[in-house]
Amino acid sequence: MVLPLSAGAYPWMVKHNYANCGSCHVDPSGAGLLTQYGRAQSELLLETQWSPPSDDGEVSPTTGPVWGLVQPPEWLLLGASFRGGALYTQSANPNNGSQSSAVRPLQMASDVWAGVLSGPFRAAASLGVTLRGAQHASITRVVPEEDGTKLVAREYWAGLSLAEDSILLRAGRMNLPFGLRAVEHTLWVREATRVDLNQFQQHGLAVAYNNEAIRAEVMGILGNYQLGPDDYRERGVSGYFEYAFAPNLTGGVSTLVTSAGADALTGQRNALRQAHGVFGRFAPSADLALMGELDVLMSSNMEDGANLGGVGYLQADLEVVRGLHLLGTVEALRYDRSGQKGVNLGGWLSAAWYFTRGLELRVDTIMRQRPQLRGE
Description:
about 55% strand
C-alpha cells in the first residue's frame, strides 16, 4: 500500500484524449513537476468529484502549491512528491516447500520540486531524502554495503523552448526518453531497461518535439556524474517516437544504446547495453485504457559475452467512478545470462484512488516468479 502526494506519470490519460504529456508536465515526456494547466486538469479529470464543478468553469484556488496556501509568481512552479506506505511480502521455495513473509515500511520518494517558465527559458530541479535505495541518484556519499539515508537529486536541467513550444532543448540530469513513462517504477520493463523514475536518470543533452500528432525525444547520454568512478558512467543515446493515430490511440518505438567501462550494477567489464522496442496506448471508452510495451534486450561484457532477452507488459486501467481506478497488469521477462534462464511471469492487481487534492491511496498485489538459477 502506498500513499503518494502529487501526480506522477499516468499514460492512461489517453482516455481523456491526452496523448501529449508536455501540456501538463514541465518534462515534455511526462512525470515530475506539473504546469499550472496540469494542476487544473488534475482537479477536473483526476480526482474524485465530491461536489459539482463551478458554473464558470474555474478551478479551485487549492490546486496551487500546498493546496493553494503558497502563491508563487506565474513564472515559478513549485511542487512536492511523497510516496510511502507498507510492503508485505510472501515467498515460497518450491524445492523444499518452505515459506517466509515480512512486513516493512516503504519510503520511495520525499522530494521537493521547483521549475521556471520565463519566456523561452525552461528549468526544473528536485531535491529529496530517501531512507534506502536510489543509490544512483544520491548526492551524498554512498557505502555499497550500507544502504542508509541519503540526499537525492533525481533531476536538474535547463533549456530553451522554441517554435511556439513545440521544440525543447535541454541539458542536465534527466529521465531517459524510452517507452511508456509509468509511475510503477518496479515494473520489469522499467527495471530491465534501467529507465525508471526512481534513480536511473542520466546527465546529457536532449531535444524533444511535440505537436498534436507526434511526441518524440532523443537524448545524448553523457553519464551519471553522481556515480563514480568514471568507468561506471554509461554513454550513448536513448529516444522514442510516438504517433497519435487518433486522440485515443497511439503507437511508438524506442531505442537505447549505452556502453561503459564497467556495469554499475554487476561490475562486469566492457559493458554494452541495448534495448529496442514498441509501445502503444488505446482507450476504447472514456473509462478504460489499455497500455503495453515490448522490448528486446541485448547486452555484452567481458565475463559473459553476448546476452539476449526480452521484457514486456500489458496493463488495463478501468475507472469505475471518477478518481477510483482498478488496474490489471501482466508482465514477462526473459534474460538468458550467466546463472539465469527461462521466462519469468508476473501479475499485478491494483486499486488507485485519487480521493482528494494531490493525494492518492494505492494498493498493489503482485505475484512474480523468481528467476530460475541454472542447475536448479
